[in-house]
Specification:
three-stranded antiparallel β-sheet, 81 residues, globular
């Protein structure tokens, strides 16, 4: 995948991921980030060409995975016949 994360920021409910193609994705807290992870731990994210990594938490999120969630969340429901 040629799209990569260029920056990440957090607010009270959302992780904002800026992408190399100019888009910014807003993702509500994902499981491990919503549970017992402190704000300081969230901020320890490392960016790579394929996604986001939290060394101390041993967690990874791929850009492809974020884009798949975004497509799923914005897809229009099928029209009833």
């Amino acid at each position: 995948m040629s799209i990569s994360a260029t920056a990440v920021r957090f607010d009270d409910h959302t992780m904002w991921v800026e992408l190399s193609d100019g888009r910014t994705l807003g993702v509500r807290w994902l499981g491990f980030l919503a549970s017992s992870v402190s704000p300081a731990q969230r901020e320890q994210v490392e960016l790579s060409r394929v996604g986001l990594h939290w060394e101390d938490l041993d967690e990874d999120i791929s850009v492809a995975g974020l884009l798949a969630v975004e497509v799923h969340m914005t897809r229009q429901p099928d029209q009833a016949a």
